[in-house]
């Protein structure tokens, strides 16, 4: 920071331009969300809260879909964390033949195109008669997001001072005790960030869900796509603005409350 | 960095670890075998056997002009998107790495903010911003007093911009983690010895962050290679990718053999790129050791 | 037909393969028939969501339930690949499928649909054309839309559209080979009555000429409207009902009914549906003249029963293309059923070069 601000103004400018680039589309969506038209219009001709009213109207089904996506995101992230964090710990603290191959296998869903994963899982679950179940959906999402938990946890583990673990082991702690009492608390930051990232990927995921989800119980993105043949509903802009606002407020509050100054991602 | 530690621990510990840590990795391994590898094997099988067994789909791929074009598009769009994402991601990751953990957490939420907005509305927002009658072009015309129009959307640039917007966070993570794992003492030492910030960056910080850069670049290009919604919404006619074809053969043509074959080739390409990167890195490391 | 089905559908071998690997154990606790929790006696109709579903509900399904007592559940996201998987695995989630054109016939060839029961459904006397497996229930018109403020003198026929000297302007066309080849030939001056079978080479040559003026080949229908209103294109190939609803929302947009291509939306019954009889009854109902009148007034569709057009209110009728107008083209699905896959590939290659 000091390095950047004091001596190099160009990189600082570029960095902020990138932040602007990342945020601007979400900002453009905000005024659209206060329009009254049934079409996407920028800037809106009339202003009002109609779109928010529709987004919150139970009869339109947006709330239910959002709730479903939340539940699914939490389920999938939980599965991914429960399996991913211990696996990352195991991988980073041991050496065995074929380790690289195993790590690669566990990471591979990142590198398989989503449409391929979607097709593969669809055929698979269809054969098992499981398509449309929440279990199939949550497992499918877990497959897609677990590698990201692995990446962030592995990098967090690199920063941990291993001498503490060694000391605990010398004092007779079991591996499980070390994992729960030494490693996990120190990893909190990486696990939280990785978990949030994974949750967002699940929340945003449409292709796998399009195939696996039950057609009368769409997730939020699937519901958004289900009318693409006719419209991109401006209600989406209200939903997006709402979610962005909650996130920003939530993270500001969290930043003020949190006192932990642990390093890591 | 880890090897000296292991040596000090001795051979018995490693043996114990081998058995004990297995239980940490086992659940995920089983899960991935059952819910990822097995379905993927099913795809490989469908690409050859769908009713009857033959390699027609692969032969078709090898000889079809359409597939060659789509293949070239996929590779070049994936490469450029990965490059752009890594460059942008580096600036962001560097900025994040030089702040307190608490601030960083807040900024990371900002970086992930685009995920809350569906690509469907985002594509409209991009039209508003980048279009021929969009905010940027209108501003340019007002400032320059000309009727200059920069085509930034519904062409290759539109695809890259749209995909990079989504993929930058994927690049930020690995770069940030390798920046954070660097020993600050190294930089301080260089500074005390009178090295200029620019030199410190290029001679110390950047080389040490290369693994993160490579990981981020690979991840964002490979994910980019598999997308098809963004190219359809923001691209031009020439920007059709292999994933678009998979989608078409799965859902419209109902030719799952062809779809699976394209999918298998897409996965093979990803594998090839990854092994190439691994091989290069190994060569580089052994070269450095010698 | 049924003989070829068994060879086309790979169910038994695929199932055996997966089960052989012991996955049944993993799945056993979760195996649930997907449809168990849907309303027990209701027909399940898969259709598109949003405003379209509202129209279908209002014009067809709700009155149908009132009249017959048969419930209809609307679910979103028709997808032939899902239909194929449902039929091949025997795990049906849907009874009725709402689909369009070429790919629908392709699916029928794969054996995904029941044959229509012509003792219940009157497949004669239609504006469109029924096939053995698919019944037309909605006809919509594709044509040129424009912004009347920006473009006071728009092309009103495809021939005019292709005349770049008289009508310079940025064009939006679709990434669909069907419709687009018809547009190309009409633009090149082919008489609508001589259109089929399509002169494919001539069509591609015409498209080659117009290529530089096409600012966006549009994959998703919403962009046919949004790109016009955000001034990215001047002439947009889109659909009359879509324009009517945008116009009702206060957008500056007009649609030329002078020359249109009529496209058909079909209902089919999924193979093996336990509610086959009720599904046939529903299809028959959907094509009834009074229902078609309601649908037409809600969607600006052309009624599939010739007589029903005269029942439609004059205000709506004014916005509908006349199927008897010699300039109007009824998209010939039979042609596309045979040629869709090969021509689509050639079209994609055309786009990429």
UniProtKB/TrEMBL annotation, chain B:
Keyword Transmembrane helix (UniProt): yes
Stretch forming the signal peptide: none
Keywords, sorted A to Z: Cell membrane, Membrane, Transmembrane, Transmembrane helix, Transport
GO terms for cellular component: plasma membrane
Keyword Transmembrane helix included in the entry's annotation: yes
Transmembrane residue ranges: 70-94, 106-130, 159-180, 201-234, 254-280
Topology within the bilayer: Multi-pass membrane protein
Domain ABC transmembrane type-1: 71-277
Compartments where located: Cell membrane
Family: Belongs to the binding-protein-dependent transport system permease family. CysTW subfamily.
Protein's recorded name: ABC transmembrane type-1 domain-containing protein
Organism: Rhodobium orientis
TrEMBL record, chain C:
Any single GO CC term annotated in Swiss-Prot or TrEMBL for this entry: outer membrane-bounded periplasmic space
UniProt keyword annotation of 4Fe-4S present: no
Record has GTP-binding as a keyword: no
SUPFAM superfamilies attached to this UniProt entry: Periplasmic binding protein-like II
Domain of life of the source: Bacteria
Keyword vocabulary terms for this entry: Periplasm, Signal, Transport
Name of a matching Pfam family: SBP_bac_8
Subcellular location: Periplasm
GO molecular function: thiamine binding; thiamine pyrophosphate binding
Matches recorded under PROSITE patterns: TAT
GO BP annotations, alphabetical order: thiamine transport
Family to which this protein belongs: Belongs to the bacterial solute-binding protein 1 family.
Protein name, UniProt field: ABC transporter substrate-binding protein
Species in which this protein is naturally found: Rhodobium orientis
């Amino acid at each position: 920071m000091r390095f950047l601000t004091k001596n190099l103004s160009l990189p600082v400018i570029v960095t902020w331009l990138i932040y602007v680039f990342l945020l601007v589309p979400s900002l453009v969506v905000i005024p659209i969300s206060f329009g009254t038209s049934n079409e996407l219009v920028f800037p809106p001709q009339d202003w009002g809260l109609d779109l928010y009213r529709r987004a919150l109207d139970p009869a339109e089904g947006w709330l239910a879909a959002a709730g479903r996506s939340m539940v699914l995101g939490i389920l999938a992230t939980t599965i991914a964390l429960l399996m991913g964090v211990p696996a990352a710990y195991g991988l980073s603290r041991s050496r065995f033949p074929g380790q690289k191959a195993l790590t690669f296998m566990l990471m591979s869903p990142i590198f398989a195109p989503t449409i391929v994963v979607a097709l593969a899982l669809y055929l698979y679950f269809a054969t098992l008669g499981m398509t449309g179940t929440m279990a199939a959906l949550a497992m499918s999402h877990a497959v897609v997001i677990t590698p990201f938990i692995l990446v962030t946890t592995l990098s967090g583990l690199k920063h941990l001072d291993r001498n503490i673990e060694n000391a605990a082991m010398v004092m007779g702690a079991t591996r499980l005790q070390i994992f729960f009492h030494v490693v996990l608390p120190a990893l909190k930051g990486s696990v939280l960030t990785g978990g949030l990232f994974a949750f967002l990927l699940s929340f945003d995921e449409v292709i796998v869900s399009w195939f696996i989800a039950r057609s009368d119980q769409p997730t939020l993105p699937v519901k958004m796509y289900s009318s693409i043949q006719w419209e991109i509903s401006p209600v989406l802009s209200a939903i997006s603005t709402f979610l962005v606002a909650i996130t920003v407020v939530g993270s500001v509050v969290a930043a003020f409350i949190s006192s932990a100054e642990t390093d890591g991602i | 960095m880890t090897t000296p530690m292991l040596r000090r621990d001795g051979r018995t510990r490693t043996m114990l670890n081998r058995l004990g840590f297995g239980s940490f990795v086992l659940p995920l391994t089983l899960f991935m075998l059952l819910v990822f590898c097995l379905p993927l094997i099913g795809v490989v099988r469908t690409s050859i056997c769908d009713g009857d067994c033959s390699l027609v789909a692969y032969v078709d791929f090898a000889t079809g002009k359409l597939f060659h074009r789509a293949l070239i598009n996929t590779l070049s769009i994936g490469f450029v998107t990965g490059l752009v994402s890594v460059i942008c991601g580096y600036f962001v990751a560097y900025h994040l790495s030089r702040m307190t953990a608490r601030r960083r957490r807040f900024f990371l939420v900002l970086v992930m903010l685009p995920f809350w907005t569906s690509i469907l509305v985002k594509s409209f927002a991009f039209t508003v911003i980048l279009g021929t009658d969009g905010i940027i072009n209108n501003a340019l015309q007002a400032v320059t007093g000309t009727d200059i129009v920069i085509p930034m959307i519904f062409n290759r640039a539109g695809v890259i911009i749209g995909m990079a917007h989504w993929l930058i966070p994927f690049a930020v993570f690995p770069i940030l983690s390798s920046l954070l794992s660097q020993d600050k003492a190294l930089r301080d030492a260089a500074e005390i010895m009178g090295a200029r910030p620019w030199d410190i960056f290029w001679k110390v910080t950047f080389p040490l962050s290369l693994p993160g850069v490579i990981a981020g670049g690979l991840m964002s290009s490979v994910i980019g290679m598999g997308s098809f919604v963004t190219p359809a919404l923001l691209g031009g006619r020439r920007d059709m990718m292999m994933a678009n074809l998979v989608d078409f053969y799965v859902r419209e043509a109902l030719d799952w053999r062809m779809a699976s074959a394209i999918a298998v080739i897409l996965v093979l390409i990803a594998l090839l790129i990854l092994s190439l990167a691994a091989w290069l890195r190994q060569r580089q490391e052994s070269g450095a050791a010698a | 037909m049924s003989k070829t089905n068994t060879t086309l559908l790979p169910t038994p071998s695929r199932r055996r393969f997966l089960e052989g690997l012991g996955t049944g154990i993993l799945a056993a606790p979760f195996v649930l028939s997907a449809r168990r929790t849907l309303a027990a006696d209701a027909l399940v109709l898969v259709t598109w969501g949003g405003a379209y579903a509202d129209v279908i509900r209002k014009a067809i399904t709700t009155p149908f339930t009132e009249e017959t007592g048969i419930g209809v559940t609307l679910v979103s996201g028709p997808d032939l690949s899902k239909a194929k998987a449902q039929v091949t695995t025997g795990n049906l989630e849907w009874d009725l499928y709402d689909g369009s054109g070429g790919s629908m016939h392709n699916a029928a060839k794969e054996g995904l649909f029941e044959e229509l029961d012509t003792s219940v459904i009157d497949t004669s006397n239609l504006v469109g054309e029924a096939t053995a497996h698919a019944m037309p229930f909605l006809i919509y018109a594709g044509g040129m839309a424009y912004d009347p403020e920006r473009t006071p003198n728009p092309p009103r026929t495809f021939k005019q559209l292709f005349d770049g000297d008289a009508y310079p302007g940025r064009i939006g066309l679709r990434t669909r080979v069907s419709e687009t080849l018809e547009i190309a030939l009409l633009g090149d001056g082919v008489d609508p009555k001589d259109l089929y079978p399509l002169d494919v080479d001539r069509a591609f040559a015409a498209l080659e000429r117009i290529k530089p003026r096409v600012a966006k080949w549009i994959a998703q229908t919403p962009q046919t409207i949004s790109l016009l209103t955000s001034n990215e294109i001047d002439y947009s190939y889109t659909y009359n009902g879509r324009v009517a609803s945008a116009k009702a929302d206060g957008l500056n947009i007009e649609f030329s009914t002078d020359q249109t291509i009529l496209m058909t939306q079909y209902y089919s019954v999924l193979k093996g549906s336990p509610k086959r009889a009720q599904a046939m009854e529903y299809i028959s109902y959907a094509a009834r003249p009074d229902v078609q009148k309601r649908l037409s007034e809600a969607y600006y569709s052309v009624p599939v029963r010739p007589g029903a057009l005269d029942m439609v209110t004059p205000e709506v009728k004014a916005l509908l293309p006349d199927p008897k107008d010699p300039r109007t083209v009824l998209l010939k699905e039979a042609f596309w059923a045979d040629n869709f896959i090969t021509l689509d590939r050639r079209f994609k290659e055309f786009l990429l070069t």
